[in-house]
Amino acid sequence: PRPSRFNGQNGLVNGQQDGSSKTSLKPSSIALQAQRKSLPIAKGRQALIDEINKHDITVLLGETGSGKTTQIPQYLLESGLAGTGIIAVTQPRKVAATSLAERVAAERGTLVGKLVGYSVRFDERVGPDTRIKYMTDGMIVRELLSDRLLSNYSVVIVDEAHERTLRTDLLMASLKRIQRERNSPTDLKGKSSANRLNPLKIIIMSATLDAEKFSTFYENAKIIYIKGRQHPVKIFHTAQGQQDYGDSAMRTFFQIHTDRPPGDVLIFLPEDIESLQKSIQVFAKRLPQDKMEVLICPMYAAQAPIENAKVFHPTPPRTRKCILATNIAETSLTIPGVKYVIDTGKCKEKRYLTRDTGGGFDALLTTDITKSSAMQRAGRAGREGTGFCFRLYTEEAYSKMELSTQPEILRCSLVSSLLQLKCLGEDLDELELMDKPDDIAIISAYKSLWLLDAINKNKEITPLGHEMAHFPLEPAYARAVIASKEYGCTSEVLDIISILSSSSKLFLDISEQREAAAEARLKFKHSSGDHLTILNVVRAYHDISQSEAKAARKDWCRKHFLNERTLLEANNIREQLRRVCSRLHIDYNTTCRDDEQPIIRSIAHGLVQNSAFIQPDGSYKQSMAQSLVKIHPSSSLCDKKVEAIIYDELIYTNQIYARGVSSIHKSFFATLGTLIQRQA
Ligand code: ADP
Ligand code: MG
Question: Does the C-beta of 103 come closer than 6 Å to ligand 1?
Fold first, then answer.
């Protein structure tokens, strides 16, 4: 490796003092300091600092819970290794970024937004004093758009690199370029601004044993192993495959609760956390009085950070905590007190659907996890003592699982990334990636951008494409917002897009109460379909919010089986989108009142690729692919026949269903010229 430029001579080591450590500590932070010192990583603190100091790039491998994510940034700060710049710690998931920032801020005895901050899509808490910034990989890639050398950062820690998300891969590629430009002083003729920048340190952190690949990618970077603490975990498999993982998880939970000694339970689910939460709550109420109480702690992005923080609070006496989480609890967050793990064997995975199977975009699919995930999940039970893992799948199913997950870049839509790269004046083909996506995926991304008018025939970015990149939205939805300017309905389109962009569903789905839910929501139903139905809900909620107190609002949502968190999150998202609109001189107040066509047409500009035309047999034929789709039973259009539809997504079960559907006149597509025909 090249000689490091982070050394005492630069005045960096031991030079910078962390201001917050000088203030006197509260008793609570004294306890936290003791906890910090007892972490497995603490013993190797100095050795780690020395290694990181010596190398521009380090690959750090350590068992989950050893202290990598919370401690390394603090070590860098305390030792002065970070110079005067900011330390970025990237996370694939929003919830991890916010919770980790909360935790580390508490360890420093300050509030989030001071020394320690976070930045995730639609939410940011950073200030002028922020030196450690937990952020999603998506946010740092977005920052590249305005600062292609990431000049505010002195260290970038790419955490959870083993997950190989699309953004992480793009970041790792860009970091290579940035380090080349910032750290080599010799070939900088003509790059005077870069010349004055601090060098950049890169740390790649992973929880699984795949360090070699990262090291090779970064010219044989130094690999450091950190040992964790792991107790034995007894693993059980089911005798038969399970049909309904939710139901099965619930029954397993109550078996543990009635038969086994105290210890918290962690359930891994692909989705529908809220539905299972409701079901467990209902049953827990029926338990005999002498049983331990059940405290349910769901963990997901749409929940306020303060709610998510509750999983870390000590379990009250005579209580068993039941934590419901997605992949987030696999390696990103270690929750203390867990003795039992219930593993449904499923996760949600983004997958790019080709034209043959779907139509050239991502769908979120519930899929089987990999062996590597199954092992991580089981491991969560053995952090503090012997643990138990109940797998809701057979041993045979386990043996047939894939070893580890394929990198997202090989299975996800590249549209959004390509748009961002285009704005940077870069291209997917030229980027030095760990794994290259195949040509079909790249061509399809170009096509999508072209259909959205973001690039021209020569693959050059258009002014519209630049505008689209300003929105922290899927390009399709960004296109819809921009189209709404012309149609004079930005207010309505923002209402709808904000709901579609939030991290949880608007309509709660509780299996026992499906009919009651449909009945209660009847009054929102709009004859044109689901987009306007969403708008009706948003408007009704807005009216209630004007006149009613918080409790009444909550009650109203419960009665209509609506997820209030989605509505609240959407309010926040809309605020942010309004700010972007202002910057782009789009008046976000323009409204078309009750005229539905402009709204649907605006959205259709974004969803041109997600369109289908009716066939004689009543099914719909995709405009961009050959397959037939049906309207999802949950749609307000499901028992209607209309000449053409647009939809938010396709769902694959035994059939292909379109979900989030609106009816549109076929003539709309004629106005788009021959675009669709050329595609089909
Ligand atoms: P790693 O990154 O190596 O998996 P972390 O740095 O995330 O480890 O976690 C180190 C320890 O800090 C874990 O034992 C975990 O339980 C604890 N921890 C992390 N976040 C919190 C929190 N919000 N509240 C309480 N403990 C936490
Ligand atoms: Mg970690």
Answer: yes
